[in-house]
Amino acid sequence: MKKLWAKIIGFFKALKPRGYVLLIAILVLPTIAIISAVLPTTLNDYVTGDTLKNDYDYVSLESKYGVKTYSTKMKEYAESGYPDSGVTGVIPVSSMSGTTVYSADATYGSSVDDYADYVGHPSDAMVLDDASSVSFTHTSHTAGLYYLSVDYMELTNAVDNPKISLTINGVSPFYESQTLILPSSWAFTSRDFALDRYGNEIQPSSEKVKTWRTWNVQDEHGMHSGLFGFELSFGDVIRIDSVNGSCLIGEVHYITQENLPTYDEYLALHGDAPVIKENLLYSARTMDLRSDPSIRLRTEQDPSALYYETDYLRLNTVFGDSWRTGGQTISYNFSVETSGYYHISLKYRQYIIRDLPVFRSIAIDGEVPFENLDNYAFPYTTSFLNRTLMDENGDPLKVFLTAGDHVISFKAVDFSYRQ
């Protein structure tokens, strides 16, 4: 033992100053790294991505594909003062070219009848698939940007979303119009969670919800805020082709793009309504619809979670790894008994992108209420955090709800990271 101790003392005596520095680095740095990895970390400051939301360039992408991106087009319109047209209207199915199906059709007749109920008047529909496109001629003389919405119904149960392309006079107006995603909706086939032989819960299978819906033409990749604008002139031919999947197309609408109100403007719209103190609690597992069947539930063995059991695995959390791609959306139905302002809190953990926030667009009944919720930031945290949505001053955001049924949706968006 004395010999060993003498060798240790001799080792340290022989070290030069540089040797001491190296030894300390070898011992201390790994220790710090281990502690930082193990200890919970939470960044709970208010974060905004608005400064980057509408400003980026994709020069390399444009040179590769020979077509400008939407952001470049918008910059050109802004620099030239090109205005919104402000035109609204409907292009009926009777004014479209393509494969028309009628109520008496043996294959699609019931879907055509459903569409007549959906729009509230008799109407046929158009088939959009690999063999059939849909086109119509623009007849307005008003110059400016036009915004579109499309009535559609999916025809297949494929996991992939249907995708379309939109051209004007045979040319793609911008890169993103070459592949536009039509949103899908998926629901669990059962609200009951079956158990395996060990007593642990199994996620139910999913089914696509095929119904008529109206889609505002926008970026479902979550890279752009707002609607896509199209520069149209009298006599232009707008053509819709299928890139993937098949669906029925109904009316196409000219719509306007309204700027989201600021938070102060939103509060002014609803006045001095009371803040309702009622506590409405929903588990992640009760989601009603999701845009992608790959968005799935997982178990968190956290005693503070709803549906927690010590001895068995209960599905109680939306798995973050399956809900991280721009455009992926989950929705929850809920009801309130009293009209007024409500605060929204979420129990979440974001540990996938270290030290950086992720962003969600939060909509009530399909509409984002005000600017703050268009790309709301959820900062990095290695442990679960109860976070009430707040403004830059740390005050809870107030969302006005009328008494009755509502839907709240959370969409993954990448506005702030697309650069």
List key phrases describing it.
419 residues; globular; alpha+beta; 24 strands
Summarize the structure.
This protein has 419 residues and is α+β, with helices and mostly antiparallel strands.
In DSSP terms, counting alpha (H) and pi (I) runs of 4 or more, how many helices? 6
Instruction: Give the proportion of residues in helices.
Output: 10-25%
Beta-sheet strand percentage? 25-35%
Using DSSP, what is the number of strands? 24
- The span between the termini is 63 Å
Largest sheet properties: 7 strands, antiparallel
- Average of pLDDT: 88
Give Rg in angstroms: 27 Å
* Overall outline: globular
Structural class: alpha+beta
Low-confidence stretches: none
Order of helices and strands: HHHHEEHEEEEEEEEEEEHEEEEEEEEEEE
Write the layout of secondary structure elements.
Layout: H1 2-14, H2 17-38, H3 59-65, H4 70-80, E1 89-91, E2 99-101, H5 109-119, E3 125-128, E4 134-137, E5 145-154, E6 163-168, E7 180-181, E8 186-188, E9 206-208, E10 213-216, E11 229-231, E12 237-244, E13 247-255, H6 263-270, E14 289-290, E15 297-298, E16 317-318, E17 329-336, E18 340-342, E19 345-350, E20 358-364, E21 376-378, E22 381-388, E23 399-401, E24 404-413
Antiparallel strand pairs: 1-13, 2-3, 3-13, 4-12, 5-10, 5-11, 5-13, 6-7, 6-12, 8-9, 14-17, 15-16, 17-24, 18-23, 19-22, 20-21, 20-24
